[in-house]
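Researcher: Please translate sequence to structure tokens.
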Amino acid sequence: MSRAIIICRLMRQGVRLMLQVGEKAPNFTLRATGGRSISLSDYRGKRDVVLFFYHQDDDPICTRIACSMRDLQPDFESAGAAILGVSEDSVITHETFARKNRLRYYLLSDEEKVVWNAYTTTREGHAAITSLRMTCVIDRDGVVRKVWPEIDLDTHAAEVLQYITQMEQGEESN
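Model: Translation complete:
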């Protein structure tokens, strides 16, 4: 299904994307696996960022997403991109999830949903939709380059990697 069709369907349901391509991504600092605090600005001028939001550690669908990103992590790194996963789970839960699934990228704890609310979607007249999974690519200048408001489990990580590779070669398309 094309991105345009997905967005049209979401808009008919009253869903509004918070981030727009071409905007500066809101900076944030969150506690992360590895005992660190990670800020988006840590990557400014250094690496592109693949920021993916997922519902919950150990959820079967979220685990597939996290592991597909893990499997392509060396390729993302070669293309100059860092992967960051965000959910409202605690750092303790993230540590267990990361160890269990051999995740080497940072998982960020957004227990108060501050970053979630700044980055993801809302439904007109309702609170943030917490079940939607979303990914965005933020370039080295801190600009949102691509947003996937929904994902295809079988192809998502590869699609994101392809976009990053094309972006680095100056060939990306929205």
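Researcher: Any highlights?
Model: The beta strands are 15-17, 29-32, 36-39, 48-53, 81-87, 106-109, 121-123, 134-138, 144-148.
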